[in-house]
Amino acid sequence: MYRMAVLGDKDSIYGYAALGMEVCPVTDESQAARKLRELAEGDYAVIYVTEALAAKIPGEIDRYREQMLPAVILIPGVYGNTGAGIANVKKSVEQAVGSDILFGNQ
């Protein structure tokens, strides 16, 4: 059975434990990249990563973009929404459908 995890700063992710997700607080880029690889190689189908953390490890995030599993989803943290999460969803939909059906020509 697949599991879900959330990766980011402690303040942003601990609420997800109440939903049954594994919370993985990280403090720096190398620790984050290492933990993301460890989760991706495990039995995790969905890995949520805070937008602020994803901005620090874009190469590691891109490594999983074309794979079926795990799905790496960017989420806002307690420090605000950068828009990176919705931009990634938009890009994925455009790639799958062939046009921007979410936002038109914005």
Short description:
The chain is of the alpha/beta class.
What layout of secondary structure does this protein have?
Layout (H helix, E strand, L loop, with lengths): L2 E6 L1 H4 L8 E4 L3 H13 L2 E7 H6 L1 H5 L8 E5 L8 H14 L9
Parallel strand pairs: 1-2, 1-3, 3-4
Q: How would a crystallographer describe the biggest sheet?
A: 4 strands, parallel
**Would you tell me the structural class of the helices and strands?**
alpha/beta
Q: Determine the CATH superfamily.
A: ATPase, V1 complex, subunit F
- Strands side by side in the biggest sheet: 2-1-3-4
Assigned CATH class: Alpha Beta
- Radius of gyration based on Cα positions: 14 Å
- CATH topology category name: Rossmann fold
Number of helices: 5
Low-confidence stretches: none
What CATH architecture do you see? 3-Layer(aba) Sandwich
* Through-space gap between termini: 40 Å
Oligomer: single chain
The overall pLDDT average reads 88
Q: Bin the helical content.
A: 25-40%
Total number of strands: 4
Gross geometry: globular
